[in-house]
Amino acid sequence: MTALSAVPPCEYGEPATLPDGSEVMLRPLEPEDADLVLDLFEGLGERSREQRFLTPKHRLTATDLRQLTAVDHVDHEAVLALSAEDHRPLGVARFVRSPADPETADVAVAVVDAWQERGLGTVLASSLVARARELGVRRFSLIMARDNEGAVRLMNRVLGDVEQAEVNHETAEFVVSLTTGRPVRGSRVVLKGA
């Protein structure tokens, strides 16, 4: 079995094979993909939704949907993963560039519960990092629930060196560098007991 960190980013339209042999297709999310975003949200359990939105979230509002599909592929980019078998939405990784600092972008990754811990988040994040570098983004900022172990694993596996970290009782905020040409293994983040 292939290690998760060995799963390379895949090109749009080409299948990526996950460590368990499953295939997914990646493509840019488009503004007309609201139905796919809704389907993806429905595939997130209560805990996954809370970790993604940092608050209980039972449904997406019309405003949420407009914001999540307002991609322009420069300042707001999103990579969508679809099942190669039936084209169901399985996950999305996105960044939104900071208006105050165009080299920094907020990042988020969501994978439907049934596909978590299979390497899909790694494939999505790796492809998003490659796209961000193409667009001149040099660092990602992220806020996560302090107990979001999946996000910490993903950050350690795919993203670069931690430039800043602030952990409080409920959340952890990070700024990570994307300036290296490959994922960095040097700085590992551990939140347990912090």
Oligomerization state of this entry?
single chain
Give me the CATH superfamily of the domain at 9-136: Gcn5-related N-acetyltransferase (GNAT)
Content-based structural category: alpha+beta
Strand content: 25-35%
Rg (CA only): 16 Å
CATH topology of the domain at 9-136: Aminopeptidase
Average predicted confidence as pLDDT: 81
CATH class of the domain at 9-136, anyone? Alpha Beta
DSSP summary: helix tally: 5
What does the overall shape look like?
globular
> Main beta sheet: strand number and arrangement?
8 strands, mixed
Sketch the topology as an H/E string, one letter per element. EEHHHEEEHEHEE
| CATH architecture heading of the domain at 9-136 | 3-Layer(aba) Sandwich
Q: Give me the side-by-side strand order of the main sheet.
A: 1-2-3-4-5-6-8-7
Distance between the termini: 33 Å
**Low-confidence runs of at least 5 consecutive residues:** 1-10, 181-194
Number of strands: 8
- What share of residues is helical? 25-40%
Outline the structure in words.
There is one protein chain. The chain has helices at 34-42, 46-53, 62-68, 120-134, 149-158, and strands spanning 15-17, 23-28, 76-83, 89-97, 104-111, 139-145, 162-167, 171-177. An 8-stranded mixed beta sheet has the order 1-2-3-4-5-6-8-7, with helices on both faces. A hairpin with a 3-residue loop joins strand 7 and strand 8. Helices cover 25% and strands 28% of the residues. The protein has 194 residues and is α+β, with helices and mostly antiparallel strands. It has a domain at 9-136: Aminopeptidase (3-Layer(aba) Sandwich), CATH 3.40.630. The relative contact order is 0.15.
